[in-house]
Structures
1.
Amino acid sequence: MNLQHHVSLKAYNTFGIPAKAETFVSATSVQELKEALSHPDYPNPFILGGGSNMLFKRDIDGLVVHVALKGIKIVDEDDNHVWVEVAAGENWHQFVMYCVEHGYGGVENLALIPGNTGTAPVQNIGAYGVELKDVFHACTAIDRNSLKERNFSLADCNFGYRESVFKNELKDRFVITSVTFKLTKANHQLHTEYGAIQQTLEDEEITHPGIKDIANAVIAIRSSKLPDPKELGNSGSFFKNPIISREQFERLQETFPQMPHYVISDTDIKIPAGWLIEQAGFKGKRYGDAGVHKNQALVLVNYGNATGAEIWDLALRVKKEVQEQFGIIIEPEVNIIE
Ligand code: EPU
């Protein structure tokens, strides 16, 4: 195991926060990962995947284990489907592109989401009408206590909107090593209902889209709204879209008739947090090197040298203002490392 000391994590988190790891190791095999998890000098190491959904407010004492397992392989196949097992350290978008190139359908709407495949199930990543759970077959994970490997089925994962068992009952208990997806080889179920996708396909005059057209449309939409973490540090949506009661929604609608919303059930309405934040006046605002993105108010950005604490201060300011103006509490989607 190649342990390094005093390593900057700036390149390992998409927010580009210069937190430091006291000790750092990149685990490139399951064996190495188990050794790192049971290192006698470093109890309870910190696990790092693609670093695309975390905000470091502090340095990390002890050991940071970077999960760098690689490999994509087909494990089963029938006339219509293919089951693909992807190692946890594979970049998510590269995996999506692999599927598009091979004609495997199911993940094309999830193009350009930052992060690694192994952490994608933790918050059930989703975009443009598709969530990871729709293509998830199973995953393998190491129990941090026993070092035994365990297989999780779709039902075991308890997926919800940006939720899974790995964020709740089993938080910090398992390290995912691989994820198996069930994808289509034929009769692809395309999801084009999302307005922006339809518009992009129309603009391109594509009447019979294939999975590559959908991926290209999603890439175009995301690139126009969401900042590329390589150019501007960010973690995608910083907040979750809040769900409020129908009564509260109807009261708010009297004052804000144009408030966008999605009906979740008879009693629950989801409001786009980006709209609330924009209405609260934060879109495009910058405080030092911490800011609210100019094209999508749900995304907080690091203009270069912001600290995690500065981004968090801005998040709290946004949260407070939204609560004062709308009486709605918005919660971070990003994992805050306190
Ligand atoms: N809106 C505004 N101002 C803004 C942003 C949004 O008014 O600055 C309003 C608009 O009315 C817009 C609506 O909010 O029509 C929805 O915006 P958008 O389509 O951009 O989607 P979102 O609800 O803001 C969610 C996900 C994104 C995902 C998109 C598309 C969450 C927390 N975010 O954003 O996920 O890409 O839908 O499906 O659910 C991520 O999780 O990192 C992420 C980017």
Note: Residues 127-128, 225-226, 236-237, 240-241, 260, 272, 274-275, 278, 283, 296-298, 333 surround EPU (CB under 6 Å).
2.
Amino acid sequence: MKLNRRTLTTLALAAASLASLLPGTALAQKKVVLGFAQVGAESEWRTANTESIKSAAKEAGIELKFSDGQQKQENQIKAIRSFIAQKVDVIAFSPVVESGWETVLREAKAAKIPVVLTDRSVNTKDDSLYVTFMGSDFVEEGRKAGRWLVEKMKDQKGEVNIVELQGTVGSAPAIDRKKGFEEIIKADPKFKIIRSQTGDFTRAKGKEVMEAFLKADGKKINVLYAHNDDMAIGAIQAIEEAGLKPAKDITIISIDAVKGAFEAMMAGKLNVSVECSPLLGPQLMTAVKDIKAGKPVPKRIVTEETIFPMEVAAKEFPKRKY
Ligand code: AHR
């Protein structure tokens, strides 16, 4: 039977409307499936990042399989293996630590499933193991923190004793934020990091470690450099409980610029927060669609960010999205 053009168009329209009425059937267009292995829920930043990914997937019509790694690499590896077994279209993940991913990434490559790194990168010589890495420049964030401190203390004559609350041991932001900060402050020997310990990016740990710093060095401490806002907020509690004034007796610098940090700045308890945007969801969904469509995707997509000193906090706060 020969069908004319008008009949073919009518049939196509009927099939399309039937597909929309019967989601989940073979007639409906197959949704792109994305497996996402998240680090955990350790911070206000991470909660905003998870929310951004979930809402962007919904908006883009992408089916999201989401796994919370509870800050454990073994959980994330298990999740990635399960995504491979389920034959998802694309795998994305934010690696809790930098090293130890080669084996599982080779498994994804062998299964021909493209991988996108979001927020944190991996330490590998073989960059064919992932399509793109999107997220902040953590070394630059550390440099911004260092530059702010150098400027703030430019007239200070004596030593500046710094305590540092590091992020998760072995994670890209902890390694890079330390590196960038040290690169700047080493230009002047008056800056001394007298203690440096991990607070695992959490408020509870930030408080606990700051209590130990205060017990050991007390009034000797001039500056706290925290690798994220949550640890700084925990440390602020410890400083107040020790009878000292945060942001006055001890200058406090942190990273993320989440709403909690703005509230601390507006209360006069935090001096500055370097921005690190968690709103990676829309960018990720665009990349997933482009990869599926066979379009080229840049190997590195860097997030644009700034720095917020306490003086601008009240003005900026209403504009904050996370
Ligand atoms: O990888 C980004 C970092 O992870 C954020 O600075 C921190 O808050 C989070 O836990």
Note: The chain has eleven helices and twelve strands.
